[in-house]
Amino acid sequence: MNKKTFFGAMAVATAVALTGSALVASNMGFKLNYSLTKSAVGISKTGTNTLALPDNRQAGLNTSKNLMDDIGFANVLSVQKFLEATDGLQVYTGVKGGAADFALTAGDGVFVKMSADVPYIVVGSDDPALAYSLNQSQVGVSKTGTNFFAYNYHQTAATSKTLMDDIGFASVLSVQKFLKLTDGLQVYTGVKGGAADFALVPGEAYFVKMGTTVNYTPSHY
Fold this sequence. Notes:
Strand order of the largest sheet: 1-6-10-4-3-2
Strand content: 35-45%
Helix content: under 10%
Low-confidence stretches: 1-21, 23-27
Mean pLDDT: 89
Structural class: mainly beta
Order of helices and strands: EEEEEEHEEEEEEHEEEE
Number of strands: 16
Number of domains: 2
Shape: globular
Largest sheet: 6 strands, mixed
């Protein structure tokens, strides 16, 4: 998957308020104020947040260590990468002698575990021509067909149902939202009588479980 660096100033065209976070957009470029929260009663069970970074990140934001530094190293307990082959997590804590730093990849979300509340400014742009491999269960590739998708900032799919439709409804088994309050998952399958459709939020990442492998290019506005 190609990674590109976002250069240059972005001419600002519109400002849109989204769930308390400000998104300023121009074509495919944006600046988003995204709340990363520590553990707090009624808000977050363990301080674990999902984070969807743009395809073209700001210069120097290439690894888990870079991300911890950009958020504020003292405020972050860990950055965690979902591993499709095992359904496990690769965890970087920044502790000397701990697990190695890992690369950030366009299209893949991460978990960020916080020890303090930070209104994190995400800057970059999405690449409307970039396709993401959403993999079905396959030995050595994906244990259960679960992908941790970094939701695009200018994507026309605004709910779990419309995301399934945009990927290809017949190919998607479920879209799952991480719930900070419980560290659980809200699951939408599209099955009649099942759990309700839910809204997608820029800055969040979502689990997308596939029944068929799809090279997905999101529809953008």
